[in-house]
Specification:
123 residues; mainly alpha; Four Helix Bundle (Hemerythrin (Met), subunit A); 68% helix; 0% strand; elongated
């Protein structure tokens, strides 16, 4: 999604733009239902607290359920970083890192291990 926001700065070609848009659409199709499920499970936890129905056991069950959905949502997000990286040139990846504030100078510094397409630790 960030790549499309920076399409002009990254000089994406038409094919890259179309592919990135398709990936964003796919990611949303996967992530939105997970996000809705996350919110529903969190609301259930809050409701149990509010209604005085929470126990140590039910708290554990709620927390695990929330964590599972959150993990699935995170994995979905990161999967699309992995799918994005090979679609960009090395120069575009360096420019992306710089534009997102992960490096001071894309020509001389490696990308920080956070939120790079295909990144989150992968350089």
């Amino acid at each position: 999604m960030h790549v499309l926001e920076l399409a002009e700065d990254l000089a994406l070609n038409d094919e890259q733009r179309a592919t990135m848009q398709a990936l964003v659409d796919q990611m949303k199709a996967e992530a939105v239902p997970l996000g809705e499920r996350f919110l529903a499970r969190y609301a259930a936890l809050e409701g149990a607290f509010r209604d005085g129905e929470i126990t140590a056991e039910s708290l554990q069950q709620h927390a695990v359920a929330i964590g599972q959905v959150e993990g699935a949502l995170r994995a979905t997000h990161l999967k699309y970083h992995l799918l994005t990286k090979p679609l960009l040139t090395d120069a575009q990846l360096a420019a992306y890192a710089h534009l997102r504030g992960y490096t001071a100078n894309p020509a001389t510094e490696p990308a920080a291990p956070r939120h790079m397409p295909g990144g989150h630790g992968a350089n």
